[in-house]
Design goal:
The complex is a heterodimer of chains A (254) and B (562). With 254 residues, chain A is α/β, with parallel strands linked by helices. Chain A is built from nine helices and ten strands. Chain A has helices at residues 47-55, 97-102, 113-125, 141-155, 171-188, 199-205, 223-230, 233-239, 243-253, and strands at residues 11-19, 24-31, 36-41, 62-67, 70-71, 82-85, 159-163, 191-195, 208-213, 216-222. In chain A, strands 6-7-8-3-9-10 form a six-stranded mixed beta sheet, with helices on both faces. Chain A has a four-stranded antiparallel beta sheet with strand order 2-1-4-5, with helices on one face. In chain A, strand 4 (62-67) and strand 5 (70-71) form a beta hairpin. In chain A, helix 3 crosses helix 4 and helix 4 (141-155) runs parallel beside helix 5 (171-188). The radius of gyration of chain A is 18 Å and the shape is globular. Chain B has two domains: 34-65 and 346-562, Orthogonal Bundle (MetI-like fold); 90-246 and 309-336, MetI-like fold (Orthogonal Bundle), CATH 1.10.3720.10. Helices cover 77% and strands 0% of the residues of chain B. Chain B is globular. The relative contact order of chain B is 0.13. The chains are: A alpha/beta (254), B mainly alpha (562). The interface between A and B is large, with 56 and 43 residues.
């Protein structure tokens, strides 16, 4: 099933405006196909809103959301070629691991033999083989997010949206999860939009960077450029006075 | 890749949605309109409007038909009834709320002692105990032929009249007010208590500076609620009122329809009752009161102030007195019920028939109540999800607070309206089952909504995005997501609604007949024919069933939280 995946799709927000009634958001940005783009910015800068617009949880007041060149503005969230992993509540607490993953194949849980095989394979890929029958409450926080990633695998959509999915995990666990995402990305080559607060996360797996400020895209570029100290002024202010500091953290870990 | 359910390919997506015009503002609205939850809410609101509107239509038609008769009902007697309705409500409120203030304070001062949990549990019982059962318990304890009279002898005063009404109202509302005050005291932040104990505050300053401000802000709402319950009280006044000197509007409506058969008079009385309750509810909402009460137990927070010996003794006396007052009529119900010939009663076909009727109507009423409530809850949630921060629509308001306003029209009023409307068209006694089920379902609705809404909203909060993302909707969503996470709160709402409708005497008193009898109606009939032992036995049966239901509701509700 790994070969079945087509390449990731370009995600484009074409002059998309949106507001919750107060400060308006205006996004005009393109995310390269099959790349991991880290989206950073202060709280309230619109990171999650941007993902929600792509996923279809929010509807733009004007502008278009294009995935692979097609306008998905009128599609329901489930009809869009995207999967999304949230910070929490990715699983139904009363359903087993297996069923939670199975919902990625059939929203009514009518699963074929092929589906079951795909579910088993996905679970073993994320390191949860043998835990199929467990309930979410019997898993650790990291394991729960692994279940969500397994569901992403069986859904097999060209775009993956990650909304701070590992924010509540400890540093070592978070690195494991990031490596898992990077590994899956290497196999499937989907377009990944990764919202995070942690510069280290972005450095670890991000290829591209989008920095949001005040509901707008302040700057874009390659992650390497952002972190070598020559990144945009606003970004350097956001991650702290010395970008050397975060390099130290990164070095300690290696 | 699984051929059975392929994920949408890009080309696929494009071809299915060929239009490329930008989505505009109406998008959210269009999606909202297609949400079946909102449609369900509209249907539920329509049904409620039909029930209430039909009653009003009956009143208006009758009033228009005999305007002079309705006007001539304004006489001295009516004035006396209105005055008594208000007077007994004022006294009942004072006698319930003022002692409750101190009982609640005493309970909050001693957050841990043996039997505290039991007392609080016992204080929730009157909420579910049918009024007719409580009235019988009070008669069995304080009545001329009661346990106290047996000790007190010939000089024991008669309980019928104002005193009986007051005792019964305090029995119901003292525990309710106590629990609400205790809840209010529970909102005092622990840090304030820590600070008070560090500053060495005694009982008096602590009351003045910490407890009283909280109690005072809760007082208008609680007093208003109790007042509201007392001016709409029907069963208590019917049984313990005794005579024209102690009659309230609700009982007068019942008498006008069932005994004097004076429809014009009933119209006048009903309009007055609506005006009165409406004024009270309006005042209540201004005060920010919660009109429905709650079956949940307040938790005991940790306290840092310890009470002195004098205070402890005073508090203990207060708590014991309140306990005896509340437990007394319950114990009397049990004792006199056990004294009845329960075996013979169980064998009687009238009793069996009434039990079956009660069970059937109660089940239907609870089912209807939960369905209507759930529809409103779902619609409210869906509307607020689709709204996203804008201004709430009229529909959303209706699904939110609108439900609470059904309490403005007491069951007797709705019953009276339909009684007047239908008596010209068909046999009113034949539609008794429909009336009992629908009116009780709607009356239990505010309580069912309170039991279910927090759980539904919390589940929706967790599941909404996930369901949208995975395309889980309709029947699949109900089966896989909503039912497993909501069956316990639904069962809580169901049990509570069933207990309320089982014990109701309001509608059946109007529509009941020999052919359609519920347990409360049969009980009333037995009392009327002075078969006191039978009545006591039936009261025990009815009380036990309602209590079991509420204990089940509480247990189910608590399981969900853990």
């Amino acid at each position: 099933m790994t070969s079945a995946m087509e390449k990731g799709a370009v995600v484009r927000l074409d002059k998309v405006s949106f507001s919750y009634g107060e400060a308006p958001f205006l996004f005009d940005v393109e995310f390269a196909a099959s790349k991991i783009t880290a989206i950073m910015g202060a709280s309230g800068s619109g990171k999650s809103t941007l993902l929600n617009l792509v996923a279809g949880f929010e509807t733009p007041q004007s502008g278009r959301v294009l995935i692979g060149g097609a306008d998905v503005g009128a599609s329901a969230p489930s009809a869009r070629p995207v999967s999304m992993v949230f910070q929490e509540n990715n699983l139904f607490a009363h359903l087993s691991v297996e069923k939670n993953v199975g919902l990625g194949r059939s929203p009514s849980l009518s699963l074929t033999q092929t589906d079951r095989a795909a579910i088993a394979e996905a679970l073993s890929r994320v390191g949860l083989a043998g835990k199929e029958k467990r309930l979410p409450r019997e898993l650790s926080g990291g394991e729960r997010q692994r279940v969500a990633l397994a569901r992403v695998l069986v859904r097999d959509r060209p775009v993956l949206l990650l909304d701070e999915p590992f924010a509540s995990l400890g540093p070592a666990l978070r690195d494991d999860m990031l490596d898992l995402v990077a590994g899956v990305h290497a196999e499937r080559a989907m377009t990944v939009l990764f919202v995070t607060h942690q510069p280290e996360d972005a450095r670890r797996i991000g290829e591209q960077m989008v920095f949001l400020d005040n509901g707008r895209v302040a700057s874009t570029g390659s992650a390497a450029d952002f972190f070598d100290g020559t990144g945009p002024e606003a970004f350097r202010r956001y991650i702290g006075a010395s970008s050397g500091g975060s390099r130290d953290i990164a070095r300690k870990r290696t | 890749m699984n051929p059975a359910s392929p994920p949408p390919r890009l080309a696929d997506t494009a071809s299915r949605h060929p239009r490329s015009d930008p989505p505009h503002k109406g998008e959210g609205g269009r999606r909202a309109a297609s949400d079946p939850r909102i449609a369900a809410g509209i249907v539920a609101l329509g049904a409620i409007a039909l029930l209430i509107g039909g009653a009003f239509a009956g009143l208006i038609l009758e009033g228009a038909h005999d305007l002079r008769g309705a006007a001539s009902a304004f006489d001295l007697y009516l004035l006396r009834v209105v005055r008594f309705t208000l007077w007994q409500a004022v006294l009942s409120t004072l006698l319930s709320v003022v002692p409750a203030l101190f009982v609640a304070r005493a309970l909050s001062r001693h957050p841990r002692f043996f039997g505290r949990g039991f007392i609080l549990q016992l204080f929730t019982v009157p909420l579910a105990l049918p009024a007719i059962v409580a009235a019988l318990g009070i008669l069995a304890l304080y009545g001329r032929a009661g346990y106290f009279a047996a000790i007190g002898g010939q000089s024991w005063p008669d309980i019928y009249g104002l005193s009986g009404i007051l005792v019964a109202h305090v029995f119901f509302n003292l525990p309710l007010a106590t629990r609400l005050f205790l809840e209010a005291l529970g909102t005092v932040p622990a840090d304030q208590w820590r600070l008070a104990s560090q500053l060495g505050m005694g009982a008096r300053p602590a009351f003045r500076l910490i407890e009283w401000p909280v109690l005072r802000s809760a007082l208008p709402g609680i007093a208003g609620l109790v007042f509201m319950l007392c001016i709409t009280s029907f069963t208590i006044v019917l049984i313990l009122g005794g005579g024209p000197a102690a009659t309230t509007l609700e009982v007068a409506i019942y008498q006008a329809l069932r005994f004097d058969f004076d429809p014009a008079r009933a119209v006048t009385l009903t309009v007055l009752q609506i005006a009165l309750t409406f004024a009270v509810v309006l005042a209540l909402t201004r005060l920010g009161a919660n009109v429905t009460g709650d079956a949940n137990l307040p938790v005991a927070p940790r306290r840092y102030l310890s009470a002195g010996t004098t205070e402890t003794a005073l508090n203990a006396t207060l708590i014991v007195l309140a306990l005896l007052f509340v437990a007394g009529p319950m114990a009397a119900t049990v004792a006199s019920g056990l004294g009845a010939d329960l075996g013979r009663l169980a064998g009687e076909s009238a009793v069996r028939q009434a039990t079956l009727t009660s069970a059937g109507l109660g089940l239907l009423a609870a089912l209807l109540s939960v369905s209507v409530s759930l529809s409103l809850i779902m619609a409210r949630r869906a509307l607020s999800l689709h709204r996203r921060g804008g201004v709430r629509s009229l529909l959303e308001h209706a699904t939110d607070t609108g439900a609470g306003f059904v309490l403005v029209v007491p069951p007797i009023v709705v019953g009276a309206g339909w009684f007047l409307l239908l008596r010209t068209i068909s046999d009113v006694f034949a539609i008794a089952p429909v009336m009992v089920v629908t009116v009780n379902a709607v009356m239990a609705m505010p309580f069912a909504i309170r039991a279910m809404r927090p759980a539904y909203d919390a589940a929706s909060e967790r599941h909404e995005k996930l369901c949208a993302q995975l395309g889980i909707s309709g029947w699949s969503r109900l089966r896989l997501v909503d039912w497993p996470s909501l069956r316990r709160p639904l069962a809580t709402g169901f049990a509570f609604a069933m207990a309320l409708s089982l014990g109701d005497l309001g509608v059946i008193a109007l529509f009941g007949s020999d052919s359609v009898q519920t347990l409360p109606y049969l009980l009333l009939a037995r009392m009327g024919s002075y078969r006191t032992a039978d009545a006591a036995g039936l009261a025990l049966l009815l009380g036990a069933v309602c209590l079991a239901l509420v204990v089940a509701a509480d247990w189910l509700g608590r399981g969900e939280k853990s």
